[in-house]
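Technical annex, item 7. During the second reporting period the consortium partners agreed on a shared format for inverse folding records so that results from different sites could be compared directly. Each record opens with the tokenized structure and is followed by the designed sequence. A conforming record, contributed by the partner at site C, is shown below for reference.
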């Protein structure tokens, strides 16, 4: 195979590289005096670094050492990226000595790669994360293809890198930059990775062969950190830097809930000048963290995400989306759908919101780091449609009008003879029951709820809401559409508040009752932060909008066996005055003069925490008993991804199982505060 041909190869075109002997996951190619190993995990579209992958690589490295090539090149045959990380299924259940043994075996393979007597080159593209990044770091050179992103997301699982990333990255580049990558889980995109010194070259695909030749011949220039990096490898400098890192980590991820950042900082501070000792300590630390409740719960959340996504498999058959209503929600839905490759038209009764939609979309695309051509293409797919011409052409019409029954019924009537055959109508309502809307829909079988959360560009969950007349095909296509636009579908049934708002409402409304009782809003919010919520209920109410909170609360006053707290008289008064929260500059907080707290309470009142959190667990039990969601995992996953509910606790039902005294504590709260705390009959089944 000539260099000219190689220059034009893309990873998904590597079909002539034969599988390596006795290897399911690797393909071996001879390119002149170089050996190229293509990682191509069997039966999946994404590479992961599993025990089997490393075991096969171990044998291939022995063969390569015996062959003495001029260079060994490692690449991925998957078009989506180099590797998504380690195989979480393979280590999630390991404990103690078993975990240590597995890690030692993995380290031995990567050490063998690092010690080969000829140049080794990793050519990385797309997502190069976790164990995949560690594989690349074990090579002498790293050549990135434009668009590559490298990072260590392990911190999101309550862990730190465990296959050599801690000592190899801090030895390669400025250690503080390396630590920040590992502590935050943020990725370094192509040019930043080159600037940091992670990549030795950044090239288009057609120049890869020339770059690997330069690396093989020792003609590639390198820069990995300079004087500052060397200075920070001294003990005194590491001690000062580690102290600052601990202080910053405590603000964002308190040690009591998230031990991994502090374990990582300890590793570097204690052993940053001795890679061999840091390697030993990394293995021991990773194994210890793996056994922690935080890691086990965050790994559980990983599986919850995967299960939700699996509920949306298949082809949605939706190329064109038409959105009715260009308010905040409609605009976000339209902008996000266009970004994910859908052709989108959006209409509104006024022109100004349509212009605002384009401005909002532009800001979203900039925050998501779209390249100029990607942003241009997304904006080309997003078309303001003041005359509503897209109604007749769309495969999916999403109604995102204000929460007024009569208005929605009027819109549905206007669609009756306009929508094309087979098209689906979905409502984004958060407070109206589908049972009250379905009679107005043009075709009840092709009508359902598609409840996005605000802001759509940040909140990963979408509730796919069924009703008695919705067809299975409609629900399947909506779930597939949700995964197709990179969101997580939670299949739920029509119920007051559906699932997420039914669980969230007691959290928000109990806080308002407590304000009436004289608790300060800061005290309430800081107690919730101590539990691990992403923001306190008072802040969240302002963020959601007090008008929306009022609509949701009103929708739940009837139809629930266990009521939410009564709406305080001042809430509709504030809404009437326009004091609807952060979007208005004033709500429960005055944003001209007050800043909501973002740090936990030092000595929280457990009674406050229980009053806020346990009614959410009670509502989750109610939804499980009523069949609002198919199972407990869907409920836990939906509440975590729809509200940010303390993920390191594993979800409200998992937390209740672990705590065990929730029904008894609810009974005590009911005696003191009323029937809204009465334990649901479903508790006996859970415990």
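Designed sequence (site C submission):
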């Amino acid at each position: 195979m000539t260099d000219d041909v190689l220059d034009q190869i893309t990873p998904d075109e590597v079909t002539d590289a034969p599988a390596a002997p006795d290897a399911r996951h690797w393909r071996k190619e001879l390119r002149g005096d170089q050996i190229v190993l293509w990682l191509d995990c069997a039966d999946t579209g994404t590479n992961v670094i599993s025990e089997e992958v490393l075991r096969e690589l171990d044998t291939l490295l022995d063969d390569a050492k015996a062959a003495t090539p001029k260079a060994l090149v490692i690449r991925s045959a998957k078009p989506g990226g180099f590797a998504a990380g380690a195989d979480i299924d393979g280590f999630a259940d390991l404990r103690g000595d078993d975990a240590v043994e597995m890690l030692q075996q993995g380290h031995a393979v990567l050490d063998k790669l690092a010690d080969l007597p000829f140049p080794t080159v990793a050519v990385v593209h797309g997502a190069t994360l976790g164990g995949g990044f560690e594989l690349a770091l074990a090579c002498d050179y790293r050549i990135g293809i434009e668009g590559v992103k490298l990072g260590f997301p392990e911190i999101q699982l309550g862990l730190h890198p465990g296959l050599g990333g801690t000592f190899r990255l801090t030895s390669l580049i400025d250690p503080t930059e390396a630590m920040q990558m590992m502590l935050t889980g943020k990725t370094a995109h192509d040019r930043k990775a080159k600037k940091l010194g992670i990549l030795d070259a950044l090239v288009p695909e057609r120049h890869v062969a020339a770059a690997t030749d330069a690396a093989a011949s020792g003609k590639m220039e390198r820069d990995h950190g300079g004087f500052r990096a060397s200075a920070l490898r001294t003990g005194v400098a590491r001690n000062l830097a580690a102290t600052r890192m601990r202080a910053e980590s405590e603000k964002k991820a308190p040690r009591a809930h998230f031990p991994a950042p502090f374990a990582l900082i300890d590793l570097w501070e204690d052993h940053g000048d001795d890679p061999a000792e840091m390697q030993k300590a990394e293995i021991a630390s990773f194994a210890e963290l793996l056994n922690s409740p935080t890691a086990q719960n965050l790994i559980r959340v990983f599986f919850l995400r995967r299960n939700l996504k699996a509920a949306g498999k298949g082809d949605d058959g939706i190329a064109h989306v038409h959105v009715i209503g260009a308010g905040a929600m409609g605009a976000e839905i339209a902008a996000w759908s266009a970004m994910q490759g859908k052709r989108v038209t959006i209409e509104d009764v006024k022109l100004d919101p349509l212009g605002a939609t384009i401005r909002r979309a532009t800001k979203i695309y900039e925050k998501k780091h779209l390249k100029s051509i990607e942003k241009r293409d997304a904006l080309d797919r997003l078309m303001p449609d003041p005359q509503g011409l897209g109604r007749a052409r769309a495969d999916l019409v999403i109604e995102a009008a204000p929460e007024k029954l009569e208005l929605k019924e009027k819109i549905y009537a206007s669609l009756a003879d306009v929508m094309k055959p087979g098209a689906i109508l979905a409502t984004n309502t958060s407070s109206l029951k589908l049972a009250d809307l379905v009679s107005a829909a043009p075709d009840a079988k092709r009508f359902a709820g598609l409840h996005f959360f605000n802001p759509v560009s940040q909140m990963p969950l979408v509730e796919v809401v069924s009703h008695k007349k919705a067809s299975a095909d409609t629900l399947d296509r909506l779930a597939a559409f949700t995964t197709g636009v990179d969101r997580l579908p939670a299949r739920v049934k029509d119920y007051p508040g559906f699932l997420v708002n039914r669980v969230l409402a007691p959290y928000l409304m109990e806080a308002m009752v407590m304000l009436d009782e004289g608790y300060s809003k800061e005290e309430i919010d800081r107690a919730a932060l101590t539990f691990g919520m992403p923001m306190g209920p008072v802040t969240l109410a302002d963020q959601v909008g007090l008008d929306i909170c009022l609509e949701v609360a009103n929708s739940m006053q009837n139809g629930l066996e266990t009521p939410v707290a009564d709406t305080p008289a001042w809430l509709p008064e504030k809404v009437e005055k326009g004091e609807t929260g952060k979007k208005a500059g004033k709500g429960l907080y005055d944003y001209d003069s007050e800043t909501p707290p973002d740090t936990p309470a030092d000595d929280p009142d457990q009674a406050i925490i229980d009053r806020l959190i346990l009614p959410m667990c009670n509502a989750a039990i109610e939804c499980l008993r009523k069949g609002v969601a198919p199972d407990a995992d869907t409920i836990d996953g939906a509440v975590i991804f729809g509200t940010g509910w303390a993920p390191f606790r594993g979800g409200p039902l998992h937390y209740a199982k672990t705590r065990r005294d929730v029904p008894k504590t609810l009974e005590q709260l009911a005696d003191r505060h009323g029937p809204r705390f009465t334990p649901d009959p479903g508790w006996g089944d859970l415990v």
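The mean pLDDT is 93. The two ends are 64 Å apart (CA to CA). All partners now use this format for quarterly exchanges.
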